[in-house]
Amino acid sequence: xxxxxxxxxxxxxxxxxxxxxxxxxxxxxxxxxxxxxxxxxxxxxxxxxxxxxxxxxxxxxxxxxxxxxxxxxxxxxxxxxxxxxxxxxxxxxxxxxxxxxxxxxxxxxxxxxxxxxxxxxxxxxxxxxxxxxxxxxxxxxxxxxxxxxxxxxxxxxxxxxxxxxxxxxxxxxxxxxxxxxxxxxxxxxxxxxxxxxxxxxxxxxxxxxxxxxxxxxxxxxx
Length: 222
Known about the structure:
This protein is an alpha+beta fold and 222 residues long.
Protein backbone atom coordinates (compact mmCIF):
# COMPACT_ATOMS: atom_id res chain seq x y z
CA UNK A 1 0.00 0.00 0.00
CA UNK A 2 1.24 3.46 -0.83
CA UNK A 3 1.68 5.83 2.07
CA UNK A 4 -0.68 8.16 0.23
CA UNK A 5 -3.73 6.93 -1.60
CA UNK A 6 -6.77 8.62 -3.09
CA UNK A 7 -9.69 7.63 -0.85
CA UNK A 8 -12.45 10.25 -1.01
CA UNK A 9 -15.20 9.75 1.59
CA UNK A 10 -13.26 6.81 3.01
CA UNK A 11 -15.17 5.18 5.88
CA UNK A 12 -12.00 4.81 7.93
CA UNK A 13 -11.39 8.55 8.03
CA UNK A 14 -15.01 9.25 8.94
CA UNK A 15 -15.02 6.62 11.69
CA UNK A 16 -11.74 7.74 13.25
CA UNK A 17 -12.71 11.39 13.22
CA UNK A 18 -16.12 10.68 14.75
CA UNK A 19 -14.52 8.47 17.39
CA UNK A 20 -11.53 10.58 18.34
CA UNK A 21 -11.52 13.80 16.33
CA UNK A 22 -8.57 15.70 14.87
CA UNK A 23 -5.58 16.49 17.02
CA UNK A 24 -5.50 20.16 18.02
CA UNK A 25 -2.62 22.62 17.89
CA UNK A 26 -1.65 22.05 21.53
CA UNK A 27 -1.32 18.29 21.03
CA UNK A 28 0.49 18.73 17.72
CA UNK A 29 2.97 21.17 19.23
CA UNK A 30 3.73 18.83 22.12
CA UNK A 31 4.20 15.97 19.70
CA UNK A 32 6.51 17.89 17.36
CA UNK A 33 8.65 19.03 20.28
CA UNK A 34 9.07 15.36 21.22
CA UNK A 35 9.60 14.06 17.67
CA UNK A 36 6.26 12.23 17.83
CA UNK A 37 4.58 13.46 14.66
CA UNK A 38 7.50 14.98 12.77
CA UNK A 39 11.22 15.32 13.21
CA UNK A 40 11.39 18.66 14.97
CA UNK A 41 14.46 19.65 12.93
CA UNK A 42 12.34 19.63 9.74
CA UNK A 43 9.43 21.75 10.91
CA UNK A 44 8.96 25.19 12.42
CA UNK A 45 6.43 25.79 15.17
CA UNK A 46 4.88 28.58 13.10
CA UNK A 47 3.64 25.88 10.68
CA UNK A 48 1.28 24.47 13.31
CA UNK A 49 -2.30 25.51 12.59
CA UNK A 50 -5.42 25.05 14.78
CA UNK A 51 -5.81 21.41 13.70
CA UNK A 52 -3.04 20.71 11.19
CA UNK A 53 0.61 21.24 10.29
CA UNK A 54 1.58 23.03 7.08
CA UNK A 55 3.78 21.17 4.58
CA UNK A 56 6.29 22.93 2.30
CA UNK A 57 7.99 22.25 -1.02
CA UNK A 58 11.50 20.81 -0.74
CA UNK A 59 12.79 21.94 -4.14
CA UNK A 60 13.23 18.36 -5.41
CA UNK A 61 11.30 17.31 -8.51
CA UNK A 62 10.86 14.24 -10.69
CA UNK A 63 8.91 14.09 -13.92
CA UNK A 64 8.17 11.19 -16.23
CA UNK A 65 10.52 11.23 -19.18
CA UNK A 66 11.41 8.62 -21.77
CA UNK A 67 13.61 10.95 -23.78
CA UNK A 68 16.99 9.42 -24.79
CA UNK A 69 20.02 10.28 -22.68
CA UNK A 70 22.64 12.39 -24.53
CA UNK A 71 25.52 10.22 -25.80
CA UNK A 72 28.04 12.96 -26.50
CA UNK A 73 27.84 12.33 -30.25
CA UNK A 74 25.63 14.99 -31.77
CA UNK A 75 24.74 12.90 -34.83
CA UNK A 76 23.63 9.95 -32.67
CA UNK A 77 21.73 12.31 -30.36
CA UNK A 78 19.83 13.87 -33.26
CA UNK A 79 18.90 10.44 -34.66
CA UNK A 80 17.81 9.20 -31.23
CA UNK A 81 15.74 12.35 -30.71
CA UNK A 82 14.01 11.86 -34.06
CA UNK A 83 13.28 8.20 -33.27
CA UNK A 84 11.89 9.19 -29.88
CA UNK A 85 9.58 11.84 -31.35
CA UNK A 86 8.30 9.40 -33.98
CA UNK A 87 7.63 6.68 -31.39
CA UNK A 88 5.87 9.18 -29.12
CA UNK A 89 3.70 10.49 -31.95
CA UNK A 90 2.76 6.95 -33.01
CA UNK A 91 1.89 6.03 -29.44
CA UNK A 92 4.62 3.40 -29.22
CA UNK A 93 5.83 4.73 -25.86
CA UNK A 94 3.55 3.98 -22.93
CA UNK A 95 3.66 3.50 -19.18
CA UNK A 96 3.64 -0.12 -18.05
CA UNK A 97 2.91 -0.80 -14.37
CA UNK A 98 4.85 -4.08 -14.59
CA UNK A 99 8.13 -2.24 -15.17
CA UNK A 100 9.90 0.72 -13.51
CA UNK A 101 8.72 4.07 -14.86
CA UNK A 102 11.48 6.33 -16.14
CA UNK A 103 11.86 9.74 -14.49
CA UNK A 104 14.16 12.72 -14.80
CA UNK A 105 15.31 14.51 -11.65
CA UNK A 106 15.75 18.22 -11.04
CA UNK A 107 16.58 20.22 -7.93
CA UNK A 108 15.81 23.92 -8.04
CA UNK A 109 14.93 26.85 -5.80
CA UNK A 110 12.40 27.83 -8.46
CA UNK A 111 10.72 25.26 -10.71
CA UNK A 112 8.41 26.19 -13.58
CA UNK A 113 5.55 23.73 -13.97
CA UNK A 114 4.29 23.95 -17.54
CA UNK A 115 0.56 24.18 -18.35
CA UNK A 116 -1.32 20.88 -17.99
CA UNK A 117 1.83 19.19 -16.73
CA UNK A 118 2.49 16.79 -13.88
CA UNK A 119 5.46 16.60 -11.53
CA UNK A 120 6.43 14.79 -8.34
CA UNK A 121 7.88 16.74 -5.45
CA UNK A 122 8.57 16.12 -1.77
CA UNK A 123 8.00 17.88 1.52
CA UNK A 124 10.68 19.46 3.67
CA UNK A 125 8.94 17.84 6.63
CA UNK A 126 9.84 14.32 7.79
CA UNK A 127 6.81 12.57 9.26
CA UNK A 128 6.72 10.04 12.07
CA UNK A 129 3.23 8.59 12.42
CA UNK A 130 2.70 6.76 15.75
CA UNK A 131 1.21 3.26 15.84
CA UNK A 132 -1.88 4.65 17.55
CA UNK A 133 -2.51 7.42 15.02
CA UNK A 134 -3.11 8.03 11.32
CA UNK A 135 -2.87 11.10 9.14
CA UNK A 136 -3.88 12.46 5.80
CA UNK A 137 -2.82 15.24 3.46
CA UNK A 138 -4.97 18.03 2.11
CA UNK A 139 -3.98 20.64 -0.45
CA UNK A 140 -4.28 24.32 0.42
CA UNK A 141 -7.44 25.93 -0.88
CA UNK A 142 -5.54 29.06 -1.95
CA UNK A 143 -3.17 26.91 -4.03
CA UNK A 144 -6.06 25.01 -5.62
CA UNK A 145 -7.83 28.23 -6.53
CA UNK A 146 -4.73 29.23 -8.47
CA UNK A 147 -5.00 26.06 -10.54
CA UNK A 148 -2.34 23.95 -8.82
CA UNK A 149 -3.75 20.63 -7.67
CA UNK A 150 -2.22 18.13 -5.27
CA UNK A 151 -3.27 14.90 -6.92
CA UNK A 152 -3.98 11.75 -4.89
CA UNK A 153 -3.32 13.47 -1.57
CA UNK A 154 -4.86 11.33 1.11
CA UNK A 155 -4.25 8.65 3.69
CA UNK A 156 -1.01 8.05 5.62
CA UNK A 157 -0.90 4.79 7.53
CA UNK A 158 0.10 4.26 11.17
CA UNK A 159 3.83 3.57 11.43
CA UNK A 160 4.81 5.45 8.28
CA UNK A 161 8.03 7.42 8.56
CA UNK A 162 9.61 9.69 5.94
CA UNK A 163 9.01 12.72 3.79
CA UNK A 164 5.84 12.84 1.72
CA UNK A 165 5.98 12.65 -2.05
CA UNK A 166 3.30 14.87 -3.58
CA UNK A 167 1.86 14.75 -7.08
CA UNK A 168 1.35 18.25 -8.46
CA UNK A 169 -0.70 19.08 -11.54
CA UNK A 170 -0.98 22.45 -13.27
CA UNK A 171 -4.58 22.64 -14.46
CA UNK A 172 -4.19 26.10 -16.05
CA UNK A 173 -3.08 27.28 -19.49
CA UNK A 174 -0.17 29.15 -17.92
CA UNK A 175 3.16 28.17 -16.29
CA UNK A 176 3.16 28.08 -12.49
CA UNK A 177 6.24 29.07 -10.49
CA UNK A 178 7.05 26.77 -7.59
CA UNK A 179 9.44 28.03 -4.91
CA UNK A 180 11.25 26.14 -2.18
CA UNK A 181 9.45 26.49 1.15
CA UNK A 182 6.06 27.36 -0.34
CA UNK A 183 3.21 26.01 1.82
CA UNK A 184 1.16 23.81 -0.49
CA UNK A 185 -0.89 21.75 1.95
CA UNK A 186 -1.36 20.50 5.47
CA UNK A 187 -1.16 17.27 7.45
CA UNK A 188 -3.99 16.36 9.85
CA UNK A 189 -3.70 13.66 12.50
CA UNK A 190 -6.30 11.61 14.31
CA UNK A 191 -5.83 8.93 16.95
CA UNK A 192 -6.94 5.33 16.50
CA UNK A 193 -9.20 3.48 18.91
CA UNK A 194 -6.27 1.16 19.66
CA UNK A 195 -2.62 0.55 18.80
CA UNK A 196 -2.19 -0.76 15.27
CA UNK A 197 -1.06 -4.41 15.14
CA UNK A 198 0.35 -4.23 11.61
CA UNK A 199 1.87 -0.75 11.08
CA UNK A 200 3.04 0.41 7.68
CA UNK A 201 6.14 -1.37 6.39
CA UNK A 202 5.69 -0.73 2.69
CA UNK A 203 7.93 0.22 -0.20
CA UNK A 204 7.93 3.93 0.64
CA UNK A 205 8.97 3.55 4.28
CA UNK A 206 11.66 6.05 5.39
CA UNK A 207 11.79 7.78 2.01
CA UNK A 208 13.84 10.95 2.23
CA UNK A 209 13.94 12.38 -1.29
CA UNK A 210 11.17 12.74 -3.85
CA UNK A 211 10.31 9.13 -4.64
CA UNK A 212 9.11 7.76 -7.94
CA UNK A 213 6.22 5.31 -8.32
CA UNK A 214 7.18 1.79 -7.24
CA UNK A 215 3.97 0.19 -8.40
CA UNK A 216 5.97 -2.41 -10.33
CA UNK A 217 6.94 -3.89 -6.93
CA UNK A 218 3.32 -4.73 -6.09
CA UNK A 219 2.85 -8.49 -5.94
CA UNK A 220 0.11 -8.46 -8.59
CA UNK A 221 2.55 -6.80 -11.02
CA UNK A 222 5.43 -9.21 -10.50
